[in-house]
Amino acid sequence: MRDKTGGASDAEAITAEAKRLLGSRVPADLRRAGELLAAADEKGSGEAAALIAYLIGAEAADAAIWPHALGYLKHAAELNFEAAQQQLSALAGRNAAAFRDDASDRWQSLRASVDIAGWLKPPPLSVLSGTPHIATVQDFLPPEICDWIAARARPRLGPARVFYRATGQAAVDPARTNSAAEFDILSTDLVFQLVRARIAAASGFAPRALEDTNVLHYEVGQQFNRHFDFLDPAVPGYAEEIARGGQRVATFLIYLNDDFDGAETEFPLLGIRHRGKKGDALFFRNVEPSGALDRKTLHAGLAPKAGEKWLLSQWIRGKG
Questions:
Q1: Could you give the C-alpha distances from 75 to 72, 103, 139, 302, 307, in angstroms and in order?
Q2: By C-alpha distance, which of 56, 25, 26, 24 is closest to 38?
Q3: Using one digit for the tens of pLDDT, what is the confidence trace for 188-222?
Q4: Angstrom distances, CA of residue 210 to CA of 105, 244, 251
Q5: Separation of alpha carbons 148 and 152, rounded Å
Q6: Distance between CA atoms of 203 and 211, rounded to whole angstroms?
Q7: Quick check: pTM over 0.85?
Q8: 122-317 sits in which CATH class?
């Protein structure tokens, strides 16, 4: 696409520079990236419009902001940015089939069908344990969104990592044999941002308290041995990480499929083994109300006996 202020190549170059700045996470760079994306959008870049939608969604503190994000996603779809078109279809879910591919108002119709209020309404929790607090949510995500997330994650999978006690740095460890895909600001999309907003609403935390989202994949025999999700401040490497980003106070898991055997989430000190169905969620706090580490939250991701398991894992920080 080309306009009087430049050409497609100009918009692509501006968008590429904005993406480079977004990767730095420096506030000044983020502001400049936003300015560049606005300029690229003016030149007709669908990718820039979609990135603006993601950024608005990432910062959305209340429901009133989300129509702006969806408006930019619709605009990106109208500019023939395929990823935006796919996201609108995914968010519309079963409603997408009601709109013909050749309808002139297809993208507006899909955008209007997205139920933002429903996404952001805190769902009911069922308590599994009072101390520590562990709760489940039935039908937290629709099946179509579960499939979308797993499909986005599959080509990004690599060996899952853990925080090493000595350094506080993430590295591969024999205790964790599954694979994982991490989604930062450059690899996410508005579907992920809405899922994160729904997690924030369900857990009672601000969206900015959420770490980058991880999607976990377990094949037969792969597991994550017993471990804690909190960071022990008595360990120097962890203490530095807590100072930077806050304590990892809670964990939110979403089961993306259920066509496997075994692979429960186990809390051995509580005698709990839980396995949700596709779209269900599990939420637990890693620290006590006083902020003290809760060692009763020792848990493990057990290995599938047949099939493969997909799980969205969202850690939540106390500083945000």
A1: 5, 16, 30, 44, 40
A2: 56
A3: 999 999 999 999 999 999 999 999 999 999 999 99
A4: 35, 14, 10
A5: 6
A6: 14
A7: yes
A8: mainly beta
